[in-house]
Write a structure and sequence with these properties.
Blueprint lengths: L1 E5 L9 H9 L14 H15 L3 H9 L7 H11 L1 E9 H10 L4 E10 L2 E6 L5 H11 L3 E6 L5 H6 L2 E5 L3 H6 L5 E2 L2 H10 L3
Parallel strand pairs: 1-2, 1-5, 2-3, 5-6, 6-7
Antiparallel strand pairs: 3-4
Length: 199
C-alpha cells in the first residue's frame, strides 16, 4: 500500500513567509527553505526579524487567512486523494496551517509548533528531528511504500528515502544539484508521474 507525502508551501499553497514579506514590505522575510538548507538558522533569523519589527502571531495569521491555494492545487489534491492516501508533511506550524487546510478540504497534515508568549513568537518546536524523513521512515516501518514530493532542501531526505520521489516547481539550483530526481512544473504532469508509481 502506498501513501503520498507532500510538502505544503510551494507545492499546494504559496510560501507563507514570502506572503508576509509582501504584506509588510520587509524583503528579508522572503528567505525560505529553498534558499537556506539550515532550517534552525532560518527560523532564528525569522524570529529575530519579527522581534526587531514588533510583529506578533496574529499579524502573520491575518496574512495567512488572506492566502489561497495555488491555482490547480485543490483539483490536483482531490484527484490524488481519490486514488490513494495523502499526508502533508510540512515544516510550517500548527498556528499557521488551519486556514490553509480548510481551503484544501482538510487533508491530513503533520507540522511543527511555535512557542508564543503574550502573542509574540519566541521560538519553535519541531515535531521530531528531521521531521519529514523521520515520518517517511516511520510510515515505511508500518508497511507503507512512500511516494514523496516537495520543492526545497528540507524535502530531499524524504524524497530520496521513498519508493518514488519528485521535485515540484523547485529552484534551478536544487534541480541542478539533484538531476536524478524527476522534476515537474505542472500539476497534470506531476499527477501522472505519481499515478504511474501507484500499484
Amino acid at each position: 500500500m502506498e501513501i503520498v507525502c507532500l510538502d505544503l508551501e510551494g507545492v499546494l499553497v504559496p510560501e507563507i513567509w514570502i506572503a508576509f514579506a509582501e504584506a509588510t514590505g520587509i524583503p528579508e522575510f522572503r528567505r525560505t527553505t529553498r534558499d537556506e538548507p539550515d532550517y534552525d538558522k532560518l527560523m532564528h533569523e525569522r524570529i529575530d526579524l519579527l522581534d526587531r519589527h514588533g510583529f506578533n502571531l496574529k499579524q502573520i495569521q491575518d496574512v495567512i487567512r488572506s492566502m489561497r491555494p495555488l491555482i490547480g492545487a485543490q483539483e490536483f489534491l482531490d484527484q490524488l486523494r481519490e486514488r490513494t492516501q495523502v499526508l502533508i508533511l510540512s515544516d510550517t506550524f500548527d498556528q499557521f496551517s488551519q486556514p490553509l487546510m480548510q481551503k484544501l478540504n482538510w487533508p491530513a497534515i503533520f507540522c511543527n509548533s511555535l512557542t508564543v508568549e503574550n502573542g509574540r513568537v519566541t521560538g519553535y518546536k519541531m515535531r521530531c528531528p528531521q521531521s519529514k524523513l523521520t515520518t517517511v521512515r516511520a510510515l515505511q516501518s508500518c508497511g507503507f511504500d512512500t511516494i514523496a514530493a516537495g520543492d526545497s532542501y528540507n524535502d530531499l531526505g524524504m524524497i530520496r528515502a521513498s519508493k518514488a520521489g519528485f521535485l515540484f516547481r523547485s529552484t534551478p539550483e536544487i534541480k541542478a544539484a539533484n538531476p536524478d530526481i524527476p522534476a515537474f512544473e505542472t500539476y497534470d504532469d506531476f499527477l501522472a508521474a505519481i499515478f504511474q508509481n501507484l500499484s
